[in-house]
């Protein structure tokens, strides 16, 4: 199934391209892999790093009311009592006594029975499903003696709680007052009953979370503000505006802590699915941690003596899911002179490699000059040198990894110290002096960019910083 009639992308094509080009592959493959667990190879690391860097840029560099944090994955176990995860972070599951498989009871229609021809669990006469029981999604592990709770600890199922328990610390040293935020990027772990759809749902993933603390009477306004900000982040990085939307949760869908939640959803090949949740969490978290720790978690204005427990707006995104959305949105195929060209039309700031330096042939001084050009561009951006195989094959390889520009060194280059720059999207070639190349690459990286795919957003006026 493709996501729109004009779109050629499928999840299978993305999985195949990621494997073929070494972005993402199955984990522990030599042992047969681990279900729904993936490793990132060279280009995958560069892409995901760029996604996270863009998130940090939007959260820190472009504003002055957010500070960074990197809290530990293993936290005091009381954290999860206070947050409600120990009691309530569960999915209902059923076991089938016949096929010995486990399914999410609230989503049987999305699951398929392993018996062929495939049907949903419970639909064959022989299906013998147990009653649903609640299954906690937190991974448990053991460390040396821990006060009160013995030795059981949990791998954090979200990064957010690391921020709440550090609220007092950060308030003290950051010299901020509400409205202000604490941002964190890091791994989270959930023992999902039905992971799947490549890196969309895995048991180990990375989150990019902001907790934005505001005066209680400003919470509604800031909630609206963050909805717009976060929506704009995706379109600013090239996601087609008609492939991303905000969806408000109905009352029955709201988490126990949430006063309002909207999801940013992307039109994946599997249909509209959550990319990011934005929640108005009220004062729930700070009050709970104050209650369980005995510490006061509030803001006190030293000049007026005013004190209050801030309310929290939380935009919570997934780095892997975002990377998948950027890949899906970028994937394109076009017919060039009777051949299909596969190309990732990634925003240049997200592209793993910004420019490839390619000598046309491996003689006549071209490789030497190309190496010199490569060395000049390396301080500017992530660039790659490639002299192996025909120039056509090398272009195709760079197109598939989404490299926006190919710098080609040819016979003329050796004579007059100029090169051509080939544009990934338009295939236009422009001749430029080698002397001017570093500045030209910088200029192109800073210029607004929009995808040539239909349904593209308008260029963002603020997307011009390198
Ligand atoms: P879902 O409904 O898809 O399970 P959620 O509502 O439980 O997601 P949140 O707790 O709001 O997710 O987490 C915030 C973000 O973290 C999600 O929007 C998603 O991008 C990411 N995320 C959550 N669970 C996973 C997972 N198992 N694999 C990959 N990313 C995830």
List the SSEs and their pairings.
Elements: H1 11-20, E1 24-26, E2 38-40, H2 42-61, E3 66-68, H3 78-83, H4 85-88, E4 90-95, E5 102-104, E6 133-136, E7 139-146, E8 150-155, H5 160-165, H6 167-174, E9 180-189, E10 204-214, H7 219-236, E11 244-248, E12 260-268, E13 271-282, H8 284-293, E14 299-300, E15 307-308, E16 311-318, H9 319-330, E17 331-336, E18 339-344, E19 355-359, H10 366-377, E20 383-385, H11 391-401, E21 405-409, H12 411-416, E22 418-423, E23 429-433, H13 437-446
Parallel strand pairs: 3-9, 19-20, 19-21
Antiparallel strand pairs: 1-2, 4-5, 4-6, 7-8, 9-10, 10-16, 11-12, 12-13, 13-16, 14-15, 17-18, 21-22, 22-23
Helix pairs in contact: 2-9
The structure holds adenosine-5'-triphosphate.
């Amino acid at each position: 199934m493709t996501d729109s009639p004009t779109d050629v992308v499928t999840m299978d094509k993305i999985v195949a391209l990621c494997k073929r080009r070494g972005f993402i592959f199955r984990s522990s493959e030599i042992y047969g892999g681990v279900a729904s667990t993936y490793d990132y190879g060279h280009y995958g690391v560069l892409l995901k790093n760029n996604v996270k860097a863009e998130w940090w840029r939007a959260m820190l560099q472009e504003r002055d009311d957010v500070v960074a944090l990197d809290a530990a994955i293993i936290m005091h176990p009381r954290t999860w009592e206070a947050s409600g995860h120990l009691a309530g972070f569960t999915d209902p599951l059923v076991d089938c006594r016949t096929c010995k498989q486990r399914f999410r009871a609230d989503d049987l229609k999305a699951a398929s029975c392993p018996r062929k021809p495939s049907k949903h669990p419970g639909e064959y006469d022989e299906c013998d499903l147990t009653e649903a029981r609640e299954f906690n999604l937190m991974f448990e592990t053991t460390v040396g003696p821990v006060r009160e709770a013995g030795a059981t600890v949990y791998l954090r199922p979200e990064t957010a709680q690391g921020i709440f328990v550090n609220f007092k610390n950060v308030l003290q040293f950051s010299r901020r007052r509400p409205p202000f935020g604490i941002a964190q990027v890091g791994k989270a772990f959930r023992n999902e009953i039905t992971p799947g759809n490549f890196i969309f749902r895995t048991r180990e993933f990375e989150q990019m979370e902001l907790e934005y603390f505001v005066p209680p009477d400003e919470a509604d306004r800031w909630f609206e503000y963050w909805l717009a900000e976060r929506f704009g982040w995706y379109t600013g990085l090239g996601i087609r505006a008609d492939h991303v939307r905000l969806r408000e949760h109905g009352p029955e869908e709201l988490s126990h802590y949430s006063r309002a939640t909207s999801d940013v959803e992307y039109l994946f090949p599997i249909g509209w699915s959550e990319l990011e949740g934005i929640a108005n969490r009220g004062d729930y978290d700070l009050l709970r941690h104050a209650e369980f720790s005995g510490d006061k978690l509030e803001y006190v204005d030293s000049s007026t003596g005013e004190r209050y427990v801030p309310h929290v707006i939380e935009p919570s995104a997934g780095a892997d899911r975002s990377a998948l959305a950027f890949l899906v949105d970028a994937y394109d195929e076009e017919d060039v002179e009777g051949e299909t060209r596969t190309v990732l039309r990634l925003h240049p700031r997200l592209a793993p490699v910004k420019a490839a330096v390619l000598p046309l042939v491996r003689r006549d001084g071209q490789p030497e000059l190309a190496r010199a050009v490569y060395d000049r561009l390396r301080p500017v951006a992530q660039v790659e040198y490639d002299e192996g195989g025909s120039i056509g094959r090398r272009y195709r390889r760079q197109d598939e990894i989404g490299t926006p520009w190919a710098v080609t060194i040819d016979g003329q280059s050796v004579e007059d110290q100029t090169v051509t720059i080939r544009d990934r999207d338009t295939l236009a070639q422009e001749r430029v002096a080698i002397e001017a190349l570093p500045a030209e690459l910088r200029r192109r990286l800073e210029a607004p960019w929009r995808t040539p795919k239909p349904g593209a957003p308008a260029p963002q006026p603020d997307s011009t910083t390198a």
